[in-house]
Amino acid sequence: MRASLLQIAVNEGETVESRRQRAAALVREQAGADLVVLPELWTTGAFAYEEFHGAAEPLDGPTREAMAKAASDAGVWLHAGSVPERVPSEGDGEGDRGGETLYNTSLVFSPSGDLVAAYRKIHRFGFDKGEAVLMGAGDTPVTVRLPGTVLGLATCYDLRFPELFRALVDDGAETFVVPAGWPERRRSHWTLLARARAVENQAFVLACGTAGTHGGIPQAGHSIVVDPWGEVLAEAGPGEQVLTVDFDPAAVAGTRERFPALKDRVMGLRDPRA
Question: Helix 187-201 to helix 162-170 angle, to the nearest 10 degrees?
Fold first, then answer.
């Protein structure tokens, strides 16, 4: 399987529409790949909090339209990163802004351009500010079956929560796709956590970050592909780059058979505080 991770630069000063068209053109250039991946919140920037509300769109908005067409033109499976999704809401729940809720939502398209999955990010970053208060939280792990592998979807900050990845493995995931807007100052965590999620779940990790600076935060770049043994198959540099790698999804089953650690999981451990 050939995967292309599009580590696009998200810089202040470029309009959302300009970046949308630029990303669509990059996707079209990947004809011949099996899977193409874009980063998290690439239309706005993951730290450009003040842009979320104005750039938010419904699930059938302009980004879906542009990415569906690009996936179809290139004939690829496309994980189109994530966008700020706008959903009408009632009440004053988390992320509610005057009758609507925003979500950090990933979109996956088939080679025919059909939207086959949408994943709302479960773990929101920011603690008491930013995404954590501006957006609602998803509550459902999502997997997508491709020819040859099953994708498990996670987004950026999700990478710090291994229980989500265990849930995805239980749902059949063999390849984790993690779009992100990871800051440069924590780049060492990015690499460490990507390798850890691969090793502990005996799965491939395709982690696609952004380059550039948005919201005043320099981005880490360094998109990375890790195999089920934790070996780095490919890693990008800090700038805008297309990282293309060939990998064998069958290696997951082989690894799990030769070193069957997942079979030794102990489920339902008692909480010692109980």
Answer: 30
